[in-house]
Amino acid sequence: MCTKDKDKDKDKDAELAATVVPVPVSVPQHTTLLLLFCVAFLVIFAISITIAIPIASVSAPSIPITGSSSSNVTALEVNPEVVLPGGMLSISGKASANDEIWINSVFELSMLPTDDARYTREFTGIYFPAGGKRFSLTAENVENIRISLYPVFVFWRTVEFPLDGPLNATDGIATISIAFPVTWRGMTIDISGEKNVNVFGDAVDNVTPVNLQVTMAVKVVADDSGNFSLEIDTGGVPEGEFLISAGELTRVVYIGTPPPATTIFDTDAPANPFPSIAGTHTGTITPDYTITVTRLYTYAISGTGGHTRYARIANATATWDRYGYVDDWRYITFDKPVVLLAGRTYNFTIRTGSYPQIHHTPALQTANGWINCTGFIDVNGRTHQGWIPAIKLLGVRCEV
Known about the structure:
- Helices cover 10% and strands 51% of the residues.
- The protein is mainly beta and 400 residues long.
- The protein has two domains: 57-255, no CATH class; 262-398, Jelly Rolls (Sandwich).
- The strands form seven sheets. It has an eight-stranded mixed beta sheet with strand order 1-11-7-15-5-17-18-3, with no helix packed on it. Strands 20, 22, 23, 25, 27, 28 and 29 form a seven-stranded antiparallel beta sheet that branches. Strands 6, 8, 9, 10 and 14 form a five-stranded antiparallel beta sheet that branches.
């Protein structure tokens, strides 16, 4: 082809290119409707599964979850015993082969209500493991309770439980429990990962501390040899005592740096400690502050070996295990730290040896709360009223 013909072809191509215009791409109407339908379905699905969540209320605080086979747990180990906030705990134990075991993790705290008698507390980053679990929160000294959970399901929603408003308390105590996974229209729905949990409501007044107990129960299955294990993320758990239990066994972990044990409840020595004799004291203790008790000290009559041989406060026991009056023989240590909540009354049993000092009164107000005598039986079998052993409890006072 000659050069002139080539130039003509180029001119034609340029004219053709100049006439080309963008053509809009149209989406078929049925495709648009399908997209809108999918979005609407997701919205309805998110709302529906929220409504389907089961809410259970309980009348009294407890560690509420025990599997049918959890009583067969014969060994329970938790490591480490002290962990920084957000650290991991390794739990292992022994049960019967292929048993379903519920492992409970519990922490408690107290807080003061606001001037207008409201209470609120947020726990950021509580970890919900995948699989069978139950989360419960109990508030004491309240009129009602409600919790919010974020994020939940699609669209990172905040969901409040109960859905229809606060749950009223019974005798000042209210509990909300939620269980997962649940089945909805043939589908299994679960909540897992880190969630922010906020508890709030009306307190009984603007003075009495509100006591909270938070429990997460997780189901695990033992292997053919009866061994079971679980890793727990302590994210969101406040610093302090963290109780791990399975079956009848309980272990205590401290989140953060444990403070040194100090005197937290003290009857002091009486002006007149006589008469005195060994025996078994029963009574109650009502602390003004939330305290964690680890040891007990007994005031002895001067020149005697007065001491406590056995003590039980709430669900913790201590036994005198010394052979002779050596070392710090006036002290005994509880088998596990025991948390006594502010304003709550706890039963005690104290069995003494030799000649402890005695407060001869049915009730004694101390700088830390009240201690009362419900009875005393001496070593000779005689019954007395108004005999309170002179003791002090050591541990940690929890500020609110």
